[in-house]
Amino acid sequence: MHEAAANDGAYCPDCRRATAVVLDHTTGDTICTECALVLDARYIDETSEWRTFANDGASDDRDPNRVGDRADPFLPDHVGGTTIAYSAAPPKNASAADAAAPLLTRRRVDVVGPSPENALVAAFRGIADMADRLGLVATIRDRAKEVFKKLGEAPKGFPRGRNRDTVYAACLFIACRNEGMPRTYKELASVTAEGAAAKKEIGRLTTLIKKHLGDQGEGRAMDIGVVRSTDYLRRFCSRLGLGHQDVRAAGDAVRRLEERLDVRRNPESIAAAIIYMVMQRAGGSKSVRDVSTATGVAEGTITAAHKELAPHASVLFGG
Known about the structure:
Blueprint: E1 2-4, E2 10-12, E3 17-19, E4 21-24, E5 29-32, E6 38-40, E7 82-85, H1 96-105, E8 107-110, H2 115-134, H3 138-153, H4 164-178, H5 185-189, H6 199-213, H7 230-240, H8 244-260, H9 267-281, H10 288-295, H11 299-309, H12 313-317
Antiparallel strand pairs: 1-4, 2-3, 4-5, 5-6, 7-8
Pfam family, one: Zn_Ribbon_TF
Protein name: TFIIB-type domain-containing protein
GO molecular function, one term: TBP-class protein binding
């Protein structure tokens, strides 16, 4: 939506003279009406905020949705709102001036919410922080919040006393699986306070969460599907800076392995070993340690998987 600027003209370097301009409130641009050149980008609108009243009959056609909904749809409606607190009622024998005093002492209090809601807000903040550090998209972050909230609503109740970081990481692990973008336990452990030492605890908590939420019959929260090596492949290749041809070769090798061979190893281990084989065939300078650093798979595991897959190189790479 465009609106004429307060001043009728501004100098346009393309037209080389002062021309009429319009303001685009959607993008924050000032645009020349003659050549469409953007003269000023992302200007700050200093006008007052306003609300939408659907039936007020206003003639202004500008989009008035400036404030929007509450910040987090997973929080109860009253969290983050405002309450009015009143002082105690005056005694019966108080004078008229004293009786009016409580009206003067009432105050507006901005609150986050009762104690359970405070814990929920803190948990959502922790989950969002972990998701940001892992570079996860908003859909995964919101799914993790949903899983955490369901834990509090589960009939059996989730055991208390658990490390909060590992609980958040377990929720993110399930959310990543929900959205078809899995992360390894080691990746999730890297953003906890305990670091890599939390990997086993995250695994145990994931199983515990599945046990608590699996009886609800909703299916959505625990629909984590089956993880394949291809789910990790593209991300691992990107970290190692592999080109398109190498990524395609690794993808084809993993597909042939799944179709023709029976290799019983973790998907991330297979992905790391296949990537190492592709790099070796291409004459790359990356070592097993480089692959281990990028994928989070131990060097010994990559070496063992490579030793197991090497005899099948002709099947994997078609030659």
